[in-house]
Fold these 2 entries.
Entry 1:
Amino acid sequence: MNFDSGRQHYYSLDDLSTYTQTSEIYSPYCLPANYSNFMNWSSPNKVIIQGITESEAAFYAVQMKAYGTDVVAGVSSGQGGTTVGDIPVFDLVEQVLEVTDRIDTSLIFVSPYQVLDAAIEAIATGISRVIILTPNVPPLDTIRLIKYAQVNNTLLLGPGSEGIMIPEQVWLGKLQPQFYQPGKVGLITTSRDLSYEVAAELNQAKIGQSMVISLGNDRIIGSKLPQWLSILNEDPHTEAIVSIGKTIQETEEIVAYCKHLGSDKPIVCYTAGLKTPQERTFQDAVTIISNHLSASIPAVNQERSIISKLKKAGIKIAKRPSEIPPMLTEMFNSKVS
Amino acid sequence: MELLEYQAKELFGMVDIPILPSQTIRDSRKIKQLQIPYPVVLKSQVRSGGRGKVGGIKFVANTIDAIAAARTIFNLSILGEYPEVILAEAHYNAEREFFLAIVLDYDLQCPVLLGSAYGGMNVDSLLTNLQQVVIDGSFSLFYARRLAVSMGLSGQLISSVSEIIAKMYQLFQEKDLELIEINPLGVNTKGELMALDGKITISDHALSRQPIIETLNLSKYQKQYNLERAGWHWLDWHNKSGKVATVCNSFDLALLTWDLLSQNKINPACGVVIDDNLTNQEDGSSLYSEKLKQILEDLAAIKGLKVILINIWSTETRSQEIIQTVDQYIQSLEESNLAAQAENIGHHSDSSKRDKSTKSKVKETLKPMPKFILRLLKVELTDLKTDDTIYLSSSLEESISKAIAMVKSS
């Protein structure tokens, strides 16, 4: 299968490559090398569903197909020859290629311990976009999978992603289309329900969404926020970006992204849970160890430090979903004048 | 899930990381049958660190001392936790103490080796001398040697410490660990190594594929942790003075709801998250109502609670089901209160000079009636009449304002 089609060389633009680090292809601050995999979701897109006989997968498969998603087949070992709705089921991914010329995207719904194997099967068959809807995958499996996907230039979304939605055009995954409306704001989120809340406010203000991307709820995920920020920054249908998160991690990624590249389009950041008394989870090895050795890292309210960081980076902060539409309207208006 | 020291050491033993002869004790009288020669160290097996400083570790020279020390340790709570097990271990003369760990780094998305030539209790010097080596890809022994050298080790210690790290890495991979730590790794005058204390965390998302979980003697806390959740759970956040409880169908909605109340200076009392599996509907409907009813009853038992805010983003069918359940619950509460009042009046007519104690008893049987705010989608189709007790809206902001108004007026 040929991975070199499309706009592969985009990332080597001078201004971008300045910031590429050791791993040039996957530097988080530039357009990914497998850029074309991230784009063109609304062009013909042949989809398979791995684990289609699991009840949740079957539920969504039938609805997606009815919505217009080109679900060519399902894969479920031992269930080959059966159907789900009118979708044919195969034992192996490669068998699907006997009835269609290509597969663009695989949606993986298998149980957590089978995810690594299913995703490798998809990638080995030459599928260039893999979306993992299954949450709670063992982290060491995900690490192996990310490496394998990088080597093969595959776009990996998830684990624990709810999928991708372009209102009235593309439905891939578990985000319910009736809660979204077409428009000009791109949403990147780690939470399905928070994206519904924000979309509801945008719909009411007649702003709508250009694209909704659910990154995944697991602590280790494939494609991350900075990559999708750069994609939406390029997307001609997106005029502004709203990042919806629930951890300090996401805000730090946005700040780093804006510092390195800056964004042509306005970015609004909404983080839920700043007022909740939750324990902070730590990301990097040294902090994790320091924290458990001394437990001396004070559990301060994160709110103030997050807000000041974002302000410095020139990012708008919404305190609640209902603040987002007026904020965006103001930004759009100031752009015009 | 975090393992206790003696459980971690069982795993160390499996890959031949050197550990001292030891025995676990669950009853202080059993210490008479100790097989290890004195002097012996007794260590409280609790989750939290810092047990040494508060008396959770004792050196004993004979059986009489040991029984007394074991009794003391069993009765000593460390950050609210009493040990179920004491680890009795031989004494070791360490000349130096190292720190070794492998931790899953979520930023780098790979394991990281950590080491310090200044292990033990002094955390400051341990951390100032902490070295790290990132394992980006598959492990090879030279990564461990690199760490040993950067720790300042020389001679024979480079290879002997590297071997220990390699064994730790083997456990890390095979047992799906998030963290494995030896602190301290004792070095004696002959340069021999001994894992004197250790810590292991198994990744929560891999627990059920690790058969080791079955063979470890899990503590009460660990068993609880390992239990399947029964369709709903309490959030870890509580406010004794709170007057609002939230019920949401996801953790994220709970975050949002809690935030919005807090932004208006209303601290919620507690929160519940109810599972919402849209597709498991073969007879799932009645089960959902049952669960919700159970939650409402539990919430009603909380003192001082004035408002229950239900924020559930779901289908129309589910929303209708929630409305019905809450409506039925309110009715049953009203009926039982009416019955209690009737009884109250009945008592009064029996003898008008009832003493105060009976009066207060009757009062107790009257259940407090909280107010309900339901934030549900597409609720305009319902024929439920909203009144002082129940308020229905599909707007989040409206529901929050209503909750605030109700708390302030109460």
Note: Chain A has two domains: 8-157, 163-336.
Entry 2:
Amino acid sequence: MTAKIVRVAAGQGFWGDWLEAPVRQVRGGPIDYLMMDYLAEVTMSIMQKQKSRDPRYGYARDFVPLMERILPDIAAKGIRVTSNAGGVNPRACAEAVRESARKLGLSGRVKIGLVSGDDILPRLDELMGRGHELRDLDTGRPLTDVRDKVLSANAYLGMAPMVEALRRGAQVVITGRVTDTGLTLGPLFHEFGWDVNDWDKVAAGTVAGHIIECGAQSSGGNLLKGWRQVKGLENPGFPIVEASADGSFVVTKHPHTGGVVSVASVTEQLVYEMGDPHTYITPDGVADFTTIQLKQAGKNRVRVSGIRGREKTDKLKVSIAYFYGYKAVGTLVYSWPEAYDKAKAADRILRARLKDLGLEFEQILTEFVGVDATHGPLAGPADPEAPEVQLRVGVRSKDKAAVERFTREIAPLVLTGPPSVTGFAGGRPEVQEVVAYWPALIDRTEIEPFVQVEVLDA
Amino acid sequence: MPESKSKRRATAPATSMLQLRYLAHARSGDKGDTANVGLVALEPEYYPLLVKEVTLSRVKRHFKGMVKGVERFELPNLKALNFLLHGALDGGGTISLKTDAQGKVYSTALLRMEIPVPVALARKLTPRG
């Protein structure tokens, strides 16, 4: 008998990732699970807004047509799907997928799991009333400071409800704010029957989840080392974890796909968004990234082992989004000769006009794309022979009218400012609402009793 | 002791300044107003050089005026250093007006830094030495 291997494949690294990836993952070779991560820090607030306009919405809507494309494949092959596409309305998302399954004639053949209880927006006042201050982890301010502007509030759930949904036979598990890593941890703990207090196994699954949660970013996409040698990104192979019962795993991708799985590609993903590497905290445990051992184990195969972990904390992270104000960014392009000097002159004129109009901004930020936008002063002096420089000016204010007026001050510079200017065909810049992020902690005991797992028959 | 100083200088191996781009690759990301830069040795044998020369104080000096504070961590298992650059993103996330509001390319700004390396190594790694 060969040792059991569980294959977890990444299908989406963020809401907006390549739509062909999940289809190619289920058709390109054997996999057991397809995990799809949709939620970034402020995604929940966008979804909450959509739900307030229409109670049928509030989830990643492109998940449904995507599932419609792959449901026949996953039903035939027994592949299971884990996804946090449910956003702030996992029930509506699950019902929409159930509808798709029925339309495809899969009634009675696909069970859909639904995890809820992460959404604490309706409970916020009650929680605060009982003394939970939900202080901003970065600034220390109590949530009362912005309570009236809060748009969404969700606790990050771990793998437990995912494991339960899988145990009860769900083939597609749809959740709200379950951690990115929980979407991989759930399948591994379900399949191997690991003890949830085995902290090294929790850490191993967490690292596996972290390596694949950003999709192709660990299999050749956005890879700096030897980027010219990364071939075939027209058809990037998204990463797949082949996990073993001892907690070690191999990262790989399907045959006949582009990109590369190497120690370098996995390492770049491991250090992405890294904090203190000794202490990578998830709801399920704490992983120590300084214990990870990587070894090339064949072409496009990297073996990962040795991972150690520590006990979970008694808090859960809460992701809160609140309305902050407005912003807009305007751009114009100045051409050679003396492109940078022309752009600088335009910026001076624009700022003087804004001041003259008495417009108040919290901030005006000027960048010169092609000179200093990404590296600031480290980029060194501007090239006087640069063929063009883009002037990029951003403003932010609580006052919508001020930002709106700013957007009308860009185009006039074309005929009333320095010469050799172009690149304004896009029209007036758009006024954008700024929804800001407020991370906080809450006692686990306030959340876990409210988490619900349901399994729907298609 | 000027004499012993000059003696030491005479016996120390010759070094020249080399940009980190020839010794390391890097990736960065964000957490709020903090950008991180993971700096990874291009070859395992370069890692001790990174540990010795890419110090907290040098990185602070490199990003002077651009960030409010720096933390440094070592990952010998990955032949990598991780730097947290606090206050680097002009408010961060959705508030920031920067092109690179999420610190995606802060990594390449660190690769501009120059460190002293043995002359022979510098010659080997750069087109014109």
Note: Chain A has a mean pLDDT of 96.
